[in-house]
Amino acid sequence: MNMLSNKLTPALDQARDRFQQMPQNDQRAIMALSVFMILVVFWFLIWKPLDDWADREYAELVLERETQSFLAANYNRASEAIKNQSAGPKKDAAVVISNSGRKAGLELTRVQPARQGVSVWLDEAPYQKLLNWLVQLHNREGLEVRQIRVERTDQVGMVKAFLRLAR
Predict the structure, then answer these.
(1) CA–CA separation, 71 and 65 (whole Å)
(2) Percentage, residues of the chain above pLDDT 90
(3) N or C, which end of the chain is more exposed by having fewer CB within 10 Å?
């Protein structure tokens, strides 16, 4: 520290002497410019980042409050829907898979119930139809793909697949 101040002292003394030798108007202009620069640096390095951060946090707080009020307002309705869904009779997964596969235009070679879910074989199926069917099974029936094996066939866009689906 002492070494640094020893090196800076002559430079500071020289700058102070040059400043004092300037005309009074130039001294005022440099002082005003210095104050302006300090304010600009404060604005861009401290105030603006803090203000942006505060705006983001406030927006997040508002979103969290809206979400909380929505959840509180709809809690009873959601719990009733869950009770009704679990209380209702569940359709046999193999039947649901067979029916929805037929509706989707897929020819299911074999559908076999098992302990871990339902195994499904398709010898030739259009890949896009297979994907759409899996999405519908997940969204409408709550069936998830537990295991999948897809192989290309000689025809473009056609696949051979094995699936294991479960709730």
Answers:
(1) 10
(2) 56
(3) N
The rounded distance, in Å, linking the Cα atoms of 159 and 157 is 7
Q: How many CA atoms lie within 13 A of 105 on its CB side?
A: 7
- Count of H helices and E strands in the chain? 5, 4
For residue 4, what pLDDT is reported?
62
Structure tokens at 74: 């709809």
**Residue, of 8 and 45, whose pLDDT is higher:** 45
Burial class (CB in 10 A: 0-12, 13-18, 19+), 130: buried
Q: Would you give the DSSP letter of residue 23?
A: -
For the record, the structure tokens of 137 come out as: 């099974």
- DSSP structural state of residue 105: T
- Which two three-digit tokens encode residue 58? 């406030």
User: Tell me, what amino acid is at 151?
Assistant: E
Q: What distances in angstroms separate CA 7 from CA 17, 88, 113, 152, one per listed residue? A: 17, 86, 86, 76
Better-predicted residue by pLDDT, 91 or 129? 129
pLDDT at 116: 84
Helix (H, G, I), strand (E, B) or coil at 116: coil
